[in-house]
């Protein structure tokens, strides 16, 4: 199993000399297992995903906020008629998911009607897709605590487990379910948009803190945690200071990083 981080920034993309090291692309993560590619969210980082010719291709949306879908129409491979991609989300049935994507990528918001023009984009119900995934891949979902709702995903292949917990405002009432969902994982991607002091003024904004990620990591059996969804104003200098103080097993994610789970 191999994980590539294509977009680790939250809310909006950023571009300046202060954001080079950790990157400025919004949420997009790629998992390769066997002959399957699973893309988790299509923020601006989605433009850098290279779909393999003979692979099973899947896009899973955690939710449909702007920073998690805005890059869908900017990947060259999706315009190849032979590049069939299954698109799904635990949040919506396939017809509703397609309708929302169609609204966003057509008319007043986008020059092309992607869902009508690209017949290779196949919208599927989540449980149907999960049950029919090749390569003996197990995909599970868990609802997060986020305005408008969002879902996290657990993906297991050959006894290796990856967990995606984006856009979640961590609360103690989640602890048992989250712990069960993440137990024995090899890598967790944790929404660490905030630091501790941010939580006072940003209650209800739908994101967790880096410190909460550290506390959670210490309560479960997990080999590695990557903190992602960095606040758009947090510079490389600030993130470096945070990263240097993190305990073993936890580090900050950055665009372009690839991790192989052996």
The best one-word shape is: globular
Order of helices and strands: EEEEHEHHEHEEEHEHHEHEE
* Secondary structure tally: strands: 13
- How many helices in DSSP terms? 8
From the alpha carbons, calculate the radius of gyration and give it in angstroms. Answer: 17 Å
Fraction of helical residues = 10-25%
Instruction: Kindly report the average pLDDT value.
Output: 96
* Cross-sheet strand order for the largest sheet: 6-5-4-3-2-1-13
Terminus-to-terminus distance: 7 Å
Description:
The structure is a single chain. With 262 residues, the chain is α/β, with parallel strands linked by helices. The longest helix has 11 residues, at 94-104. It contains eight helices and 13 strands. It has helices at residues 66-69, 94-104, 114-117, 126-131, 175-182, 198-201, 210-217, 236-244; strands spanning 2-7, 28-33, 36-40, 56-60, 85-88, 121-123, 138-143, 151-157, 160-165, 185-191, 222-228, 250-252, 258-260.
């Amino acid at each position: 199993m191999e994980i590539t981080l294509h977009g680790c920034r939250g809310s909006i993309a950023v571009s300046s000399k202060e954001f080079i090291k950790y990157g400025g692309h919004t949420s997009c993560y790629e998992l390769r297992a066997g002959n399957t590619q699973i893309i988790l969210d299509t923020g601006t980082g989605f433009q850098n995903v290279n779909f393999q010719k003979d692979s099973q291709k899947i896009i899973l949306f955690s939710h449909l906020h702007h920073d998690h879908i805005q890059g869908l129409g900017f990947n060259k491979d999706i315009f190849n008629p032979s590049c069939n991609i299954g698109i799904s989300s635990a949040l919506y049935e396939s017809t509703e998911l397609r309708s929302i994507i169609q609204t966003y990528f057509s008319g007043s918001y986008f020059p092309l009607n992607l869902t009508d023009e690209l017949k290779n984009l196949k919208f599927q119900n989540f449980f149907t897709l999960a049950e029919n995934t090749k390569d003996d891949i197990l995909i599970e979902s868990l609802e997060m605590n986020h305005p408008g709702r969002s879902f996290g995903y657990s993906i297991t292949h050959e006894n290796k487990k990856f967990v995606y917990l984006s856009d979640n405002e961590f609360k103690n009432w989640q602890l048992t379910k989250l712990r069960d969902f993440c137990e024995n994982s090899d890598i967790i991607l944790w929404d660490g948009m905030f630091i501790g002091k941010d939580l006072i003024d940003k209650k209800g904004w739908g994101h967790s803190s880096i410190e909460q990620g550290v506390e959670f990591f210490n309560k479960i059996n997990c080999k590695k945690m990557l903190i992602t969804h960095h606040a758009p104003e947090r510079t490389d200098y600030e993130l470096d200071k945070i990263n240097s103080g993190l305990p073993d097993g936890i580090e900050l994610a950055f665009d372009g990083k690839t991790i192989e789970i052996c």
